[in-house]
């Protein structure tokens, strides 16, 4: 088999490794892996903190985001605030509990990356980062082409407020 095809399977294997490493945190917090990812995203998102922003960054469906946001709000991990100019738009923020869980998840991710990168030199890492940046660019372009083909409406990105 062509070794370049291994790249297609490595992403899946890396994700499974991270999910396995996150099991203890998921059990202690009662959150799903995707909810931990959303908390981590919000910890670095700045003003890109709406359900639409999360959906675009994480490539998750409206239903998936809505369910996760509802649970994060119910468990006291996030706050929701109406946009000053558009009441339909809700900005998400982290509570103290949410910030702690995001930091815990970041430690889990850091440990997972350390295990994956064991034995990889700094020079090899730099080369890998360069290649990954090109691959990410190609994926973003391909994803944008597919998204342009599917009709998008404003309500596709709204979440339930109840």
Account of the protein in words:
The protein has 7 helices and 2 strands; from the N terminus they run H-H-H-H-H-E-E-H-H. It has 162 residues and is mainly α. It has a single domain, classed as Winged helix-like DNA-binding domain superfamily/Winged helix DNA-binding domain (Arc Repressor Mutant, subunit A). Strands 1-2 form a two-stranded antiparallel sheet. A hairpin with a 7-residue loop joins strand 1 and strand 2 (90-94). Helix 3 (33-44) packs across helix 6. The protein is globular. The termini are far apart.
Class in CATH? Mainly Alpha
- Unreliable residue runs: 150-162
Helix/strand class: mainly alpha
Q: What Rg, in angstroms, do the CA atoms define?
A: 18 Å
User: Helical element count?
Assistant: 7
Biggest beta sheet attributes: 2 strands, antiparallel
Number of strands: 2
Fourth-tier CATH superfamily name: Winged helix-like DNA-binding domain superfamily/Winged helix DNA-binding domain
Helix share bin: 55-70%
What fraction strand? 5-15%
What is the number of independent domains?
1
- Mean pLDDT, to the nearest integer, reads 87
Reported CATH architecture: Orthogonal Bundle
The helix/strand series, from N terminus to C terminus, equals HHHHHEEHH
> And the CATH topology?
Arc Repressor Mutant, subunit A
Overall body shape: globular
* Main sheet strand line-up: 1-2
- The rounded distance between the terminal residues' Cα atoms is 51 Å
């Amino acid at each position: 088999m062509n070794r370049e095809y291994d790249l297609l399977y490595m992403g899946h294997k890396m994700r499974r490794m991270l999910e396995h490493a996150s099991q203890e945190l998921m059990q202690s917090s009662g959150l799903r892996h995707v909810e931990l990812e959303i908390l981590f995203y919000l910890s670095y998102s700045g003003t890109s903190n709406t359900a639409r922003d999360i959906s675009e960054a994480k490539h998750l469906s409206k239903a998936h985001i809505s369910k996760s946001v509802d649970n994060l709000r119910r468990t006291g991990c996030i706050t929701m605030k109406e946009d000053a100019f558009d009441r339909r738009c809700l900005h998400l923020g982290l509570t103290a509990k949410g910030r702690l869980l995001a930091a815990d998840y970041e430690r889990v991710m850091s440990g997972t990356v350390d295990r994956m990168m064991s034995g990889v030199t700094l020079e090899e890492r730099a080369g890998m980062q360069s290649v990954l940046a090109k691959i990410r660019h190609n994926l973003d372009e391909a994803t944008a082409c597919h998204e342009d083909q599917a009709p998008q409406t404003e309500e596709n990105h709204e979440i339930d407020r109840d």
